[in-house]
Amino acid sequence: MHTNIHVHLFSADHTPPAQLYYMLRGALHSAARGLLPKLLGRPITSDDLRRFDRSMDRFDWPWPVLFQLASAAGDTFSMVDVSRLITMFRTVSRASQSDLRAALRVDDRETQADLLKGLLARTAEHRRAGRPLPFRDALCDVVKELYDAHEAKASIYGRVTQEELWDKFKNSPGADQYQRVIALSVNFDEAFLDDNLPGLSSFAAIEFADQIAELEQLAAKNNRGSGPRLLPFLGVDPRGHNARTLSEFVRSKVGKTKPFKGLKLYPPMGLLPTDDRLRPVFDYCQDEGVPVLSHCTVGGAGVRGSSRTFADLAHPLKWEDVLNRLERRAREQSTKMFRLCLAHFDRLEDPDDVSWCDELMGLMRRFDGSGKVEVYSDIAFDVVTGSSRKRYGDNVARVLDHGLGDRVLFGSDWWNYLYECDDESAFVSQLDVDRGWWKSADFDTAADKFLQDV
Amino acid sequence: MSDRTSRVGFSCIGALLLAALLPTTARAESPALRLAALPEVAAEGRQLFVLQESITFECSEPTRYELSCDSRGELTVDNPSGQPIVLTLEVDRRASRVELDGASLPLTSPEGRDVQIATAEVPAGTSRLVVEIPGAYRLDGRPSGDIFVPALVTRHPLLGDTMGDPFSAEITLQSVKKYRRWGRVDDTRVALRYPEGWRWEPSAESAGAPPACPASGTPPDGLEGCLRTLPDGDLEAVWTFASPDRSFFARSVALTRPGGVVFNGGPVIGTGFAIGSGCRFCRESFRAWVGYEIGVTAHAVIALLAEYSPTERVAVVPVVELALLPQMSAIPAVTAGLGAPVRVWPKVDPGIRLQATVAWSLWSTFSLGVVLFSDLFPFVEQDWYPLFGAGIQLGV
Known about the structure:
Number of helices of chain A: 18
Strand content of chain A: 5-15%
Structural class of chain B: mainly beta
Radius of gyration of chain B: 30 Å
Oligomer: heterodimer
Mean pLDDT of chain A: 87
Strand content of chain B: over 45%
Strand order of the largest sheet of chain A: 1-2-3-4-5-6-7-8
Number of strands of chain A: 8
Low-confidence stretches of chain A: none
Order of helices and strands of chain B: HEEHEEEEEEEHHEEEEEEEEEEEEEEEE
Number of strands of chain B: 25
Largest sheet of chain B: 9 strands, mixed
Structural class of chain A: alpha/beta
Radius of gyration of chain A: 22 Å
Helix content of chain B: under 10%
Distance between the termini of chain B: 52 Å
């Protein structure tokens, strides 16, 4: 693999604490949530999940008992890998291991049982105080302490820059194989403004404008030297813009001769690809051959709890109208190829077991480039996701069997995957598990095609 | 990025316990948090200043467990440019009315967005921009609306209509300043009016109700606010907030509707057999009963039953059962407790009963229970006591 299509260089300073809260909450909820369809005897609905989230936040009886049982059960109840959580947060923040252990209330064994025990103790404190949502508040306390530990050090040693993370990535074992790396910026400015989480800011310490200015400088500096080329993608969130200003912003930043080489969309943060303000942006991408990468799983940063409301924004079929329109447009006027990567090739770990794979595969087959619209996917992160790995491999193998191998991109989702594996080498070694399906994928050809006009 | 999900689920014992969940959970339907108008384009909106922001929440109680709040967000906007500025404004998708200086602005719903937009020509100088959102916040705390149906709700449909633990839920109040779309927001005033009978709970941001308002009615600047009683008996919490920097007013208020102690239920009818009464499923083992049930808090049900059997003739049975497990889908709710059966005819004999009921709520209209009981009449010398019985009971 010579191109890694999916890397993040933004740090704890570029992401709001609210984002970490939802990530942790999602992990803690997921095991319990998985049981709902069995207990309800039917597929769960968004409404079920909303109520489930609420009851978890309240943490009434018997939740504490369940969590105590879980603690006692130890490794049979694997929700959060504490060591990996600490590793991940250390990578992107200034907090030390001991800071993080203190915030999570774990000792040097870093066991999940201790984490749960610490959470239960905090929850009990809030329950005694009569808080209506004791579990939510306990989790907010954890995140607040994590960020406080980071802030204390950041005030001495400075913010964590993207250059630091780029150096960490390049020094990660296995990263030396890449000739091109796509760094995806994400606009968190508007993502959590509707949330009022006690003690947690909805804002990142570094705003998006500064995040992309920093990334722009980093790419320029890096690409003057040797080593892998850094190709930044611009995170786009239409909120705060109208169609004209958004289009002007994108045109000024993205293109073959511009600092950003593609677009990154993150629908679960509250936007839809059909947003009318994105129309001229996509037209521009089609005219200039600018590739677009969009998050496409039921989870991820920005997904509030278990509710599908936000997750559904990322559904592959939300793109169908956009792609049909662009295909019509290509017929009517001379355009380049519109290339869209619907990232992660969504796994089958949705609580109601609904997979987006079939829909995504349908789009990949339907938009094969013959109408100047081409749909890709990548294997970032999800290829290493625990119990679903076998099914995931089977599904990607189906894509390859359909001759779509040259539209499956390689991406690792560094640093996010630190939650699951250690480094690029470990990530790649995971590909060998199961059927070895990936060997028939043509990642380099796919990347060359996807980045053809970059 | 992708989320991280679990690798292994709960153990079986965990699964069973999961079914035994909480009594009542308040449910907030996606609230409107953008309570006043926001410029669509931040760069354009920042040319204008909000001199005064006033957000008023008017809450009513359509049913016992519901709190429905309409909001009115009023901005005094200063346009210092000396010329009118045309702005596209975003408002909540539920907003029913947007006014600029008293003139209503037409609203449209753009494709792919969860907002409505309106175009306004903001005149030079100051103007008043108002957004009204009916049902901006609705709390639905009906017990039957939860995934886990409290045991007493399944026990009798009429109990389900009336009983429940007090619930509390948060109402989030936020200034438009948070969204950074206006050039400046100088002063914020927030008022929350709600019916008498709702109580403040400690929340992450306050220990309880704010202090009583001073005679002027204006609270000191900050997040604490003050509380006063309005002439119609409703209560009003008021906050004022002014900050020259980027800080903004945002806080959550937790309100509870205290539940009562005793809840009226309704009639039950049942039939079954007492196994051990000398024969199985014969005429002598037959039981039939009618009764009436009431709830005591969310945790106990009291029933008074009149039972008929061919052998014991007529007995009066007061029973108290405690809620143990709520219903979750097909997994029934469980209650268990003690009774004091008293045979009243042909002669009076007191006894003791152990009783457990598993119950399902059917379409929130009926309650179907399977009752298991064991009776002991210590003063009756019969060799089949204690006897064990089972029956089916319908709450209607």
